[in-house]
Give the backbone structure.
Amino acid sequence: MRQIIQHFTDDDLYKFTMCCAVIENFPRTQVRYKFNDRDHTVYPPGFAEELRRQIEMLENVVITEEEIAFLRRRCRYIPEWFCNFLKGFRYDRNWVKIRQDESGHLDVEFEGCWSNTILLEVKVLAIISELYYMMTGEAASLDYDAYYRKSQDKGRRLIEAGCVFSDMGTRRRASFRAQDTFIKTMKECNESMSGSGKFIGTSNVYFAMKYDLVPIGTMAHELICAIAGIYGPQMANYLAMKTWASTYRGALGTFLYDTYGWRIFSLNFSEDYANMFKGLRVDSGDNYEQLDLIVEKYKSLNIDPRTKQIVFSNGLNVDEALKLQRYAENKCIPSFGIGTHFTNDFPGIKPRNIVIKLIAVKITESWPFYCSTCKLSEDRGKYSGDESTVRRFREALHLSE
């Protein structure tokens, strides 16, 4: 089969920004990641073998001078030394272990230096998603003309309603072409449709370069999860904010707060960081309840929440974004990061419910053991990690059952 990932920056911005922070702050840290298919999908026979071949082909994917120039022009917060690091970066198949059992279930694990393996997650998920449709034959049924028209309608509705929104759909896209079609359509919508809303960019760096858009993103849960594995979950958010602030000095100021739920984050969210960070991202729980908690926290710190950006990214579709816009527009500066609904919305096609999460960490390669970690978001269905670790972290955070 054809090679699915052909561009080094066909990846989400937050993987590059986190990689830079990891090298600067945790250069010797080792990690383990594990794939989780929440729907327990039975994959076609031979899927693991073809996935293994696709990952081997990543070894030939290197960053180009055009991609480097784009990063330097559009992402000025990324230091030059990191661009030089990317020039020498090479994927290695030995970081990845893949198995498929007799029932067809898939098992994927990464292990290695954090600064290397951090650049695998999004690419491997995008490969698994697209490869599934290719090997089941569903890819042949994708109607891209109809998809273009459907995307136009989504863009029109969001722009007319005043929504500021971005694409975050690389990981579970139906195909590279599907994401390309959507982003191209949104750029056309910006230029041709009237309204106070705007498509502000994409998390995918390659498509941002192709269409001269702003790459969107900051961090993922794995940063807080890794810090929690090393130091414990109670102060992980605070240490993550401190790490991020020292690395980017005010740039990339949207913090993803829900790794261990609102309560412990709120206790970690001191006035200095509340002022420093331009806003927060809501990625789990009830969007309306979470916003109300955020608003009250800012008010308790004598900060006007209407000056803060709140990014909603919790499984949104257009209808939900429109409702949230009406609810939030006088409470904060709302914006929306929408993923699967933008890049995998074809009739009769079920999007893959797949993630790859960091599950263990050790601060240097000389440690003889890993420390397990987990994610405890506002939604039980988004928990990651083994049961004993989840239980231990919940006890440490005094979370009730």
About this structure: The two ends are 47 Å apart (CA to CA). The longest helix spans residues 144-160. The CA atoms of residues 234 and 397 lie 6 Å apart.
